[in-house]
Structure formats: C-alpha cells, structure tokens
Design brief:
seven-stranded mixed sheet; Nuclear Transport Factor 2, Chain: A; alpha+beta; globular; 160 residues
Length: 160
C-alpha cells in the first residue's frame, strides 16, 4: 500500500512533468485550423498551377497521395508533379471555400475558376475541388485531391 509520502512524491513528479511538457498529450490542429487550411489551399493552388513549382506540394503531400482528375483519371504524387508542366495559367479564382473537419482529418471544398489552359484539354470551365488533409506531427499533410467540372445547369442554379 502506498504511503502518504510516496503519493506526494508521485503528485510532485506528475506536476513537474506536466509543467515541463514531458507528460503532455499531443494536441490536434490549432483553433485557427480553418483559416490556416484555406490559406494553405490557396497557396498550394497558386504554387502548382500558376508558378508550376512543386516544392510545397512535394513537402506536404503524403507518399501515397492520389488525385482524381476530371475524366476519372487517378494519378499519384509523381504523376501530379509531372503534370504541372501542362498548365499555362495567368490567374485562378477560388470561390465559396469551406472546411469540414473530423478529428485530425479536414476537407477543403471550393470552386476553382482558371484563367488559362491545360494541355491537351485546353480551357477548363469552373471546377469543383475537394482536398483532404491529415494533421500529423503538428502540420497538415495532403492526402488526396479531387476535381470535377461544374455542369452548366449547376452553375446556373448557383450550386457550383
């Protein structure tokens, strides 16, 4: 049975550990996660599509990253990086962004208007984009990205 002196020593050790962070529990995303993700999402779009710079994507995309591109094409991380050269874009516009989070998983959904072309397709109409991120070791990692063209009727009805 524990003596009072031993109990006090245990509480002092636990208190010291908590004070120093030694016994802290890993936390989830910060309270500003929504704003942080929206900024990351836009920065990533601009880096990839306008600047054709894969550095940010390479740093945050998990190795098993997948993109579901328009037309049903599924590509991995290396293919997505190679595809950056196909873009000839002056500007992009991200509209109606929203973030949905469950635990350490978050999805960013938005409309993407592209002022430019992609070879061999040409000019895209508005696209709906959905990216899934995972909070790992204190930062967001990109797990997947899906893009689909907005149907003219959906645009007309304000649903895309």
């Amino acid at each position: 049975m524990l003596r009072l002196k031993q109990v006090k020593q245990i509480f002092w050790a636990l208190g010291f550990g908590l004070l120093c962070g030694c016994a802290s529990i890993p936390s989830g995303p910060p309270p500003s996660y929504s704003d942080d993700l929206l900024k990351l999402n836009e920065t990533l779009f601009r880096a990839m599509i306008i600047d054709q710079d894969p550095a940010l994507f390479t740093a945050i995309a998990v190795e098993d990253f997948r993109v579901l591109a328009p037309g049903g094409v599924v590509e991995g991380k290396a293919q997505a990086i190679q595809g950056l050269r196909a873009w000839d874009v002056v500007d992009i516009k991200i509209m109606n962004p929203q973030v949905v989070r469950h635990g350490n998983i978050a999805t960013v959904i938005n409309r993407l208007d592209i002022d430019g072309t992609m070879q061999p397709i040409g000019r895209w109409g508005p696209l709906k984009s959905m990216r899934t991120f995972s909070w790992e070791e204190g930062e967001w990692q990109l797990v997947s990205h899906s893009l689909t063209p907005c149907l003219p009727k959906a645009v007309e009805l304000g649903r895309c």
